[in-house]
Amino acid sequence: MESFYTREDSYPSTAITEPSRASFVSGPATAGVWDPRFQHAGPPSALLARQMMQHHPREGFRLADIHVDILGPVPVAGLEVRTELIRGGRSMDLLQATAFSADHPDRPVLQARAWRILRAPEDYPRSIGRRDAGAPAVLPDDLPAGGRGLSAIAEAHLGGYTEAVEWRYMEGAPTELGPAFVWGRVWIPLVSGEEIAPWERLLVLADSAGGLSLPVDTSRYRFINCDLHVALDRDPEGEWIRMNAQSIATPGHGGIVNNELADVHGVLGTGLQTMVAAHLG
Question: Which InterPro entries match (predicted)?
């Protein structure tokens, strides 16, 4: 596997207020664990972030927050991404990117909005709240080489995405149900010929939080996300991302997945997924 996507065509806008379009070929590595015909939501979420970051980037600004809505299964097929500015300002931009499958070019399958904000001054007062300070006590090099890490899913497809990432567990295990405390890294670029960017690397992994921390037997119950929301107070550094993921389900109501995100320097933000909790059939 060389990359998740290969760039096909690009139609950049001439001004920040004008939409841009780009098309990509989806590679085998995008295939998800539930059904090899459809993509794991991590890679296309990262692709939407890439397009928003590249939409007329502004000096001194950074992507701070992204909310992805999964509008339907994303086929392992060509994707067109349309990116636009929703609201611009002196200190913040609200961007939107929408993915359309080549199989159904008029029906969106994934949509994301992100805030691109002015970077805080270097002398701004530091505040960490109740967060652990400093680098994590256990680093990925302290752990044995890991593997696919999503085999608790009944009849999981163990090709595609699962071969493009590595997981190293501190708590939990691939075959266990329940919370997971795990380091992950991505083996391949998001787009062919490009080095994967920090935000892209994190988003490829973050959508797996619900699968890593499954609370139920997936041969009897559904527990799948309809969105992914990630907010970071600083940019990730290095190839490893630590995820402290826990799934919560309340009978008669629904479910969520909370995910504390960190790199080798410490905690950097949080992820949240809204889960559909139901019986199969």
Answer: ACOT8-like_C (IPR049450), Acyl-CoA_hotdog (IPR042171), TesB_ACOT8-like_N (IPR049449)
Q: Are strands 254-263 and 180-186 parallel, antiparallel or unpaired?
A: unpaired
d(CA 183, CA 189): 18
In terms of C-beta density within 10 A (0-12 exposed, 13-18 middle, 19 or more buried), how is residue 5 classed? buried
Query: What percentage of residues in the chain have a pLDDT greater than 90?
Result: 84
Domain map (residue ranges) of the chain: 5-119+146-279
Residue 61, judged by CB atoms within 10 A of its CB (0-12, 13-18, 19+), counts as middle
**103 Rama sector, left if φ>0, alpha if ψ -120 to 50, beta otherwise:** alpha
Class of domain 5-119+146-279: mainly beta
In angstroms, how far is the first alpha carbon of the chain from the final one? Answer: 34
pTM over 0.90: yes
